[in-house]
Amino acid sequence: MYTASAKLTFHIQHANSLKEKRQVVRSVTDKARHKFNASIAEVDTQNLHRVMTIGIALVSGDASHAQKSLEEIIRYMEEHANADLIQVEEGCD
Q1: pLDDT 10s digits, 30-43
Q2: What values do phi and psi take at 60, rounded to 5?
Q3: pTM to 2 decimals?
Q4: Looking at the DSSP assignment, which residues form a beta bridge with residue 41?
């Protein structure tokens, strides 16, 4: 069994309130969760309205498949989040 995880940090330029931020978070996490069947959630910076920190975790029987899937999820979230990706921290076991 192999696990892959990542922590993505985004900057939401247009968010002027936590409500606007939550709309961006909910939209991108729900879409990615549905498309990739991975665990995706906001994991930090909940009280900062212009910073979004998303955690991704997945399990696979093959290490290369886990890594490939994680990279695909990161690419998808970067393209579909209404925010700028500013940092990626990856981990695999």
Answers
A1: 999 999 888 999 99
A2: -150, 160
A3: 0.85
A4: 55
Say which amino acid occupies 69.
Answer: S
DSSP 18-63: HHHHHHHHHHHHHHHHHHH--EEEEEE-TT-TTEEEEEEEEEESSH
Q: What is the three-class DSSP state of 83?
A: coil
CATH number at residue 19: 3.30.70.1120
**Share above pLDDT 70 across residues of the chain, in percent, rounded to a whole number:** 98
Write out the residue range of the structural domain in which residue 28 sits. Answer: 2-92
How many domains does the chain divide into?
A: 1
Q: Encoding tokens for residue 30?
A: 């729900």
